[in-house]
Design brief:
The protein is mainly alpha-helical. It has one domain. It is globular and about 30 Å long. The model has no long low-confidence stretch (mean pLDDT about 95). α1 packs antiparallel against α2 and α2 crosses α3. The protein is built from four helices and two strands. The termini are far apart. The chain has a two-stranded parallel sheet with strand order 1-2.
Amino acid sequence: MNWEPKLEEKFKLMISRIPVFHRRITEEVVTKRAQELAGARGAKQVGEEDVITAFFSDVPSPFYGMMVRLLEQTGFDYKKYGFPKNKS
């Protein structure tokens, strides 16, 4: 599935900032989940909300703080999509 070009650039930048030993698995898991989310909403391209939702749903909790910091550093506005969601 295609990605919005600027989104793909931001995603690759973020992935490049992840510690090398987690980089490949993070890229694979988040890419797969983002594409599933885009497909489920009938989109022809992966959008920012798909990527952000994939990160928040599939990144293990020990890496949560680093993920949020990297999202912010690479220009992802996760708050406009309602993240982080309260876990009640």
